[in-house]
Amino acid sequence: MKIGACLLLALLGYANSYKNYSGFQLLQTKVLTNRDVDSIAPLIDFTELDFWVQPRVGRSAEILIAPEHAIYFKALLNSLGLEPRVIVDDISVHVERERNEIERLRLLEKRGGRDPALDRFLNFEEIMAYVDEVSAAFPEIVTVIDIGSSWEGRPLKVVKLSNGPGKKGIFFDSAIHAREWIGPPTALFAINELTENLADNQALLDANDWYFLLIANPDGYHHSWVQDRFWRKTRRPNNLCVGTDPNRNFDQHWAEGANLTEWECSATYPGSEPFSEPECKAISDFILATPAITMYVAIHSYGKYILYPWGHTNDLPLNVNELDAVAQEANAAITAVNGTVYEIGTTANVLYHAFGTSNDWAYEQAGISLAYTIELPGGGLGGFNPPASDISLVNAECWEAFKVFAANIPISRKTFYLSK
Ligand SMILES: *[C@@H]1O[C@H](CO)[C@@H](O)[C@H](O)[C@H]1NC(C)=O
Ligand SMILES: *[C@@H]1O[C@H](CO)[C@@H](O)[C@H](O)[C@H]1NC(C)=O
Ligand SMILES: *[C@@H]1O[C@H](CO)[C@@H](O)[C@H](O)[C@H]1NC(C)=O
Ligand SMILES: [Zn+2]
């Protein structure tokens, strides 16, 4: 479906088509043991269950469930000894509250000048308008690079900040998972620091180039604003359902362990083939064509983690000491702001096995030896809906971490590990 048809549908059916989350519950299991994780594993790809926090040893899993499935799955989880309890009784209350808050802030703010509204979530059009404004206002620093289009035809715009040629750069992708709305504000804040507040940050721009792909999954992001707040994937239809998990679609140990028939409707469906999603293909083409980029940071939520390769194996990457040292330094910078502590380690060891992620692709296939995923904090019991009042602290913390990342940009690419 092209964007025209989409807009038309949105106009015709806006109120009716907004997914009604009335009665959807967020369940939390007990703290899981090794055995519990094994017993819950077969449930991960059930399309009735949306795992907001994946099962892992020593933590509780969190699962969103529709009212019509709640009784059955609570009984199932109970029979497995996982002691599910309801931590949000009706998630639609949070969705509604968030929407009202955004409308209230929109009315309040006087968007005079070019400042982005850094204190609330911005929709796709608002973010693109900001990109246009900031590039017009700071033409000597900001270049907007059109790296391609989404499935529905929305632009993939990389904001490049540079004050001279020949420098190495750091690349950020955010909102590749549509519902993770807390990511783009941290990138917008960084852009603002490097333009409006450049006087305080001149050395950061003198040293390196910065690249931000603010919305890496524009169709999904748009969908999460106008139809389904908790949409995660792209919007390209497959045989059975709609959408691919773009952060499983990169050509790096793609779909290992996956059963494609069963997975088409799941939240982590990796696509029909590597780079089936134009968004992921565009990112990879751009990264491969831009060797000056020697550091990669994927911005996600939620969970307070700084992750590095690998996701596909529990083995440690060859330069694990370097990866870990920079992550520790970034975490210390975050903690210095207001005491927040992130957990650090490889994706597979700290979180779960993940194949075909942008982070690991950048490391293994593009030779970017420092490649990270930062999982930003969630909103207490609201998961993906942190209140807007949380944004400024997350922005301030991330900015400190981003500065640490930028201070460690490698001087060249190098490939430690090629398994293909
Ligand atoms: C959402 O669903 C609930 C219960 O099924 C219903 O009472 C409510 O009116 C619906 N809300 C909207 C906006 O359709
Ligand atoms: C995938 O799942 C389908 C449906 O359960 C099954 O028929 C098929 O054999 C599985 N394929 C593989 C490769 O395991
Ligand atoms: C900083 O942390 C303290 C203690 O946890 C908390 O009460 C306070 O709200 C935090 N500050 C901000 C700006 O969130
Ligand atoms: Zn994510």
Question: In words, what does this structure look like?
Answer:
By secondary structure, the chain is of the alpha/beta class. The chain has two domains: 25-89, Alpha-Beta Plaits; 116-407, 3-Layer(aba) Sandwich (Aminopeptidase), CATH 3.40.630.10. 38% of the residues lie in helices and 16% in strands. It has 14 helices and twelve strands. It has helices spanning 3-17, 34-40, 67-79, 91-108, 124-137, 183-193, 198-207, 218-226, 260-263, 278-289, 320-338, 347-351, 358-364, 391-406; strands at residues 25-28, 49-53, 62-65, 85-88, 142-149, 155-161, 169-174, 209-213, 293-301, 305-308, 343-346, 370-376. The strands form two sheets. An eight-stranded mixed β-sheet has the order 5-6-8-7-9-12-10-11, with helices on both faces. Helix 6 crosses helix 14 (391-406). The radius of gyration is 21 Å and the shape is globular. Residues 1-15 have low confidence and may be disordered. Bound molecules: 2-acetamido-2-deoxy-beta-D-glucopyranose (3 copies) and zinc ion.
